[in-house]
Every structure is written in C-alpha cells, then in structure tokens.
Amino acid sequence: MALRETSVLVTGASGFLGGALALHLAAMGVRVRALVRRPEKAAFLPGSVEIVTGDLLDPAALRAAAQGCDIIFHCAAALGGDLTMQRRINVDGTLLLAENAAQVGVRRLIHVSTLSVYGVMYE
User: Fold this and answer.
1) Are the C-beta atoms of residues 22 and 48 closer than 8 Å to each other?
2) What is the model's pLDDT at position 120?
3) DSSP-assigned beta bridge partners for residue 11
4) Considering the entire predicted model, what is its pTM?
5) Nearest 5 degrees, angle CA 40-CA 12-CA 88?
6) What would the mean pLDDT of 105-115 be, rounded to a whole number?
7) Which of 7, 40, 83, 106 is 20 to 30 Å from the Cα of 34, by its Cα?
C-alpha cells in the first residue's frame, strides 16, 4: 500500500511526535487528517492537513475523525495528571479509538507508545 494513495488520521497531531509525523506525511503528499483537542495548538500544520477537533474519550468524535481514513497513526497520550486520568486517556481512549475505527472500516491502526509504560527503570 502506497501512503500517497491513502487517507490517514494522526491523533495527537498538535504534539511533538504526532505533529512531526503529520508534517512529514503531508510533505509526502499524503491526505492527512489531524485529531486535536485544541486547534490553535495545531496552527503550525500546513493548510493541506484537515484539522478535526475531538477527544479520545468521545466516541462520536472518534468515529467522525476516522471516517474515510485507511490508516490511523495513534500518537495521542496523556503524560501529565494523575494515574487515573492517564489510564482513562491512554487505555480507555485507545480502546475507544480502535473500536470506532473498526466500525467505520479503517484498515490499519498504528499505535505509538513509549518505554515509560514499563515504569521508571533505574540501574
């Protein structure tokens, strides 16, 4: 599958990793849709990127954002706040995204994570 022939959704596209990925994909000529909570934080993205406002805990927003996309690059994550809130966003939100993506026929979901899911490691 050639990426230029696909439509992709990037979650967390106003953040460091998701933003860099959205920029790279757009520069390659890929049709990019960006799911962000605060559109003003995504102002650095080019006009070719479709900005969609939404939250990982809102099934209707996730379904609408995923509609018509072939691939989702899931880069969004809660890094701050308490562990309960992080779990809601990072675990429950990811599950909601996967369920809603499947409902609208997304072919592939690529989940980006971090080594910190294993806890802090000391030598």
Assistant:
1) no
2) 61
3) 35, 74
4) 0.90
5) 115
6) 89
7) 83
